Amino acid sequence: MSATATATASDRSDIRTVMVGGTQIGLLTAAAVVAFLIVSRQVTAVLPQRALEALIVLATGTAVSFLPARLTQARHVEGIAGAAAIGLWGTVVFMAIDIVLLRPFKAYPWTWDAIGGGSTWWYLPIWWMLGTFLAWTGGIVSAARAAHGETSIARAATPALVGAVALVVVARLARLDLVLPAEAGAGFTIALAVLAVVALVRKR
Q1: By 3-state DSSP, what share of the chain in percent is helix, strand and coil, each rounded to 5?
Q2: 77 vs 31, 151, 167, CA distance in Å?
Q3: Where does residue 110 fall: left (phi above 0), alpha (psi -120 to 50 degrees), or beta otherwise?
Q4: Smallest Cα–Cα separation from 23: which of 34, 35, 15?
Q5: Which tens digits make up the pLDDT trace of 62-101?
Q6: Which domain holds residue 36?
Q7: Burial group, residue 89, by CB count within 10 angstroms (0-12, 13-18, 19+)
Q8: How far apart are CA 57 and CA 183, in angstroms?
């Protein structure tokens, strides 16, 4: 009885939490994209430009992965699911900003559209899945750490960030020929997924 009451008090997945939280995540994502665009246009030296872009990617990845769990106070399945829902709604909100504001002003060249034969819709489901996946795995990691009394986003994110840097180094040594921001984003996603799997295995 007391365990159920505790779960209900901590884990939130109500519609208001999801809608408000997802909107905040979407706005944050849009701000990060604008910052990325400013750096790509204003910083002309390649190495500083790529380094700053990678930092923006890692900071944004950390925010969209761990803030949803903070908003839902994820401790159990309900809160983790709520975090994933916030991540999904955040991608929808950003998509609206992207279509209404960024595209009409030709903020960036849309090579993704060219890959899809000029269509926007082929990559949108991938974007929705990525945003949901990051918030979901971030929720799992956050809930696992909260079970041991640790609720700091910085401490929860540090292993994923360290893993991302390590994977970037591996990619560089392997000469995968990817741009640094892409390597950083991919490394963060992979590291976070591994941490989520470890958290689930330990819980069993």
Answers
A1: 80, 0, 20
A2: 30, 17, 30
A3: beta
A4: 15
A5: 999 999 999 999 999 999 999 999 999 999 999 999 888 8
A6: 2-203
A7: buried
A8: 10
pLDDT tens, 111-140?
Answer: 666 666 666 667 788 889 999 999 999 999
**pTM reported for the whole predicted model:** 0.88
Structure tokens that stand for 120 in this block = 């926007």
Work out whether the CA dihedral 135, 186, 181, 91 comes out positive or negative.
Answer: negative
Dump the DSSP string for 32-43: HHHHHHHHHHH-
Q: Are 10 and 83 in contact (CB under 8 A)?
A: no
State which H helix or E strand residue 67 sits in: helix 46-72
- Nearest CA among 40, 41, 63, 27 for reference residue 180: 40
Q: Which residues contact 10 (CB under 8 A, 6 or more apart)?
A: 73, 74, 75, 76, 79
- Whole-angstrom distance, CA of residue 19 vs CA of residue 39: 30
* Number of structural domains the chain divides into: 1
133: its two tokens: 């996946």
